[in-house]
Amino acid sequence: MPTFVFDDAILASSFNRPNRTGFMLESLADLDSELKNLGARLILRRGNWVDEILKLAHRAKANAIYIAEDVSRLSRQRLDKLEAAANTVGVEVIRQSGITVIPAGAVAPPDSDHYKVFTPYYRRWQEIPWRPIASTPKSITPVVGLKSLPLPKLSALCSGTTSPEVILGGETQARKRLNSWTKKDLANYSDRHDDLPGDATSRISPYLHFGCLSSLEVATKLRARAGGEAFVRQICWRDFYAQILAARPDAGWSDFRDRGDRWNQDSEAFAAWVAGRTGFPVVDAGMRQLVREGFMHNRARMVVASFLTKDLYQDWRKGAAHFLDWLVDGDLANNNLNWQWNAGTGTDTNPHRIFNPTRQGNRFDAQGDYVRRYVEELSEVEGGLAQDPDPETRARVGYPLPIVDHQVAIAEYKEMRATPQPPS
C-alpha cells in the first residue's frame, strides 16, 4: 500500500519552500500514475506523520510498515516515534536505506562510528558488496476501501515564488534526463564536469534527493561504463555526508570543526551576495542561476560559497539557509556539509582553501558564456572581458564595481583565522 503523508511539522518548517514542494508534488503525481499502471494508487494523507501512518496500518490490517529512512535528526526522531508506537500494537517497522548506496554507518574506522575524511571512506565504500537492485513489480494488489486525499495544489502547502525555469519532477523526467546525459556526457564527465557554460553535469541531484532515482541503481549501472568511475565518486560524496550527519546530527547547523570564527555581520555585503550584485561576474552568475532555475552548477556553488565565507568572511549558515530557500536538490547533509567544506569548518583537510573568483571565471568560463547567460547587464560584453569588465563598461551597463578587493579581503580573512575566538 504505497503511502505518502504530508507532515504538518515539515510543512510548518523553513524547509517547505516552493521549488522543492512543487517538484515533490510533480513527483508524487508521476508516482501515482505509474502505480495506476500496476493496478494500485498512491494513498495520500496530511497531518501528524506518525498518527496518519498508524491509522492507515490499522485500517489495512498491516503487519509491517516499510519506510525509506533518512539521516536528518527530524527524520530519525519521527521514525523512532513511529517504531515505538507501532511496536505497542504489534506492527513491525522496517527501515530501508533507500537514499544512499550503502546504509549510513555500514562502514566505519576502528576508532570511530563514522569517517571524517572522504578518501578512506571512498576506499571502503568501493570494497564492500552493494545490495542488489530491487526489481519493479509487474502488478500491485490494492487494499480495498482506503480513501486518499486528492493531490493538493502548491498554493495549499506553501507560499512564495517558484523559480521560472525550475525542472519538472518525477521518475519519468528523471529517467529521460539520466538516459540523455549518459549517452551524451558520461564518457567525458571527468574532463567536462567543471565547465560552467558547457553544463555537462548530470543534473539528477533533485531526482536522487526525492527518490525519483535510486542512487544505488545509478551507481551500479554506471560504475563500469566509460567515465562512470569519476561520476560514481561524486555519488559517494552523498553517502559520505549522509554517514556524517547520521553520526553527528548537530553537524547540520553546527561547525563540524570549530575554528573560533568571528564572522563579519555586514548586512549590505550579504544582501549584495544574495542579489548577485557583488561585482564579481562568475559569483553573480551563480547566484542568479540559483534563483532562475532552483539549481546552481557545482563549480559555481564552490565559488560563491568561498566568496561568502572567505572574501566576505560571513557565516556559512547564512549561505546554507539561502541555498535551501531555492535549491530543488536542497538536502541538509549535502548542502550544509558542503558549505562547511567550503568554509573550512567541515571535513576538508585543507581548511584554508580559497577560490579566487576572477581566476575561477577565467578558467572555467573563459569566453564568458556562463556569465552572459545569467548576468543580463553583461550580455553584450564580448568574450572573456565579461569576467572582469572595466569600470567604464560597468558604469555604462549598470553593473556594480567589486564590493571587496579580493587580495585585501583574503589577507583580512587569514588574519582573523590566525587569531581565533576562544571557545565560549
Short overview:
The chain has helices at residues 8-11, 18-37, 49-59, 73-88, 118-127, 154-157, 171-185, 189-192, 205-209, 215-222, 228-247, 267-275, 281-293, 298-311, 316-326, 332-343, 357-364, 369-374, 391-397, 406-418, and strands at residues 3-7, 43-47, 64-68, 92-96. It is 50% helix and 5% strand.
Q: Can you give the helix content as a percent range?
A: 40-55%
Instruction: Count the DSSP helices.
Output: 20
User: Roughly what is the average pLDDT, rounded to an integer?
Assistant: 95
The major pleated sheet works out as: 2 strands, parallel
CATH topology of the largest domain: DNA Cyclobutane Dipyrimidine Photolyase, subunit A, domain 3
Looking across the biggest beta sheet, what order are the strands in? 1-2
Named at the architecture level, the CATH assignment of the largest domain is: Orthogonal Bundle
Q: Strand-residue fraction?
A: under 5%
Name of the CATH class of the largest domain: Mainly Alpha
Structural class: mainly alpha
State the fourth-level CATH superfamily of the largest domain: DNA Cyclobutane Dipyrimidine Photolyase, subunit A, domain 3
User: What distance separates the N and C termini?
Assistant: 51 Å
* Order of H and E elements: EHHEHEHEHHHHHHHHHHHHHHHH
Number of domains: 3
**Ranges with pLDDT <50 over ≥5 residues?**
none
